[in-house]
Each structure stands twice: as structure tokens, then as C-alpha cells.
């Protein structure tokens, strides 16, 4: 999996947002807000990576159990 290059992440104050660029900015009205974990995952998707590798990276960064990490990563990817 890889990030959608039609969006760029920006930090505004303490918040992270995905901003559409190029032609996507014409058809996508608004911004997508990310929490810290979402911004972390987005950053890891800058290169091709598997879902299981994302879960492992998430576990290295955050104190949680594998089941919760897998659920959170899956939900992020689906959105």
C-alpha cells in the first residue's frame, strides 16, 4: 500500500490535515483531519508497505496490543 499522491499532509498548529492538490482539489471540497496516529501511518505509507508491516510499526511507536493496532490500521486504510 502507498499514499494517495493527490493529497499532501500538513501540520497546522497541533493538528494534521490532508490537503487535496492538483485536479483533486477541484473535485474534493474540504480537508481531511488526521490525529497523531493517522499522521504517523500516513508518513509510513510514503513507500510501498504491507498492512502487517504497518501494524508492526504502529506497535513500535504506540503502547497497545496487536489486536487493537491491527483494528486501528485496518480502519485507517479503509478510510
Indicate the overall shape.
Answer: globular
Q: How are strands sequenced across the largest beta sheet?
A: 1-2-3
Overall helicity: 40-55%
Identify low-pLDDT runs.
none
Strand content: 15-25%
Mean pLDDT: 90
Which helices and strands, and how do they pair?
Elements (H helix, E strand, L loop, with lengths): L6 E6 L2 E6 L2 H5 L4 E3 L1 H9 L6 H11 L4 H13 L1
Antiparallel strand pairs: 1-2, 2-3
Helix pairs in contact: 3-4
In short:
This protein has 79 residues and is α+β, with helices and mostly antiparallel strands. Helix content is 48%, strand content 19%.
Question: Could you explain how this protein is built, in words?
Answer:
With 79 residues, the protein is an alpha+beta fold. Helices cover 48% and strands 19% of the residues. The protein is built from 4 helices and 3 strands. The chain has helices at 23-27, 36-44, 51-61, 66-78, and strands at 7-12, 15-20, 32-34. The chain has a 3-stranded antiparallel beta sheet. A hairpin with a 2-residue loop joins strand 1 and strand 2 (15-20). Helix 3 packs across helix 4 (66-78).
Amino acid at each position: 500500500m502507498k499514499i494517495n499522491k493527490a493529497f499532501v499532509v500538513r501540520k497546522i498548529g497541533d493538528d494534521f490535515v490532508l490537503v487535496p492538490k492538483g485536479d483533486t482539489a477541484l473535485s474534493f471540497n474540504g480537508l481531511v483531519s488526521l490525529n497523531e496516529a493517522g499522521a504517523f501511518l500516513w508518513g509510513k505509507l510514503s513507500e510501498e508497505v504491507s498492512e502487517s508491516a504497518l501494524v508492526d510499526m504502529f506497535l513500535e511507536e504506540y503502547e497497545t496490543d496487536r489486536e487493537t493496532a491491527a483494528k486501528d490500521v485496518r480502519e485507517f486504510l479503509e478510510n
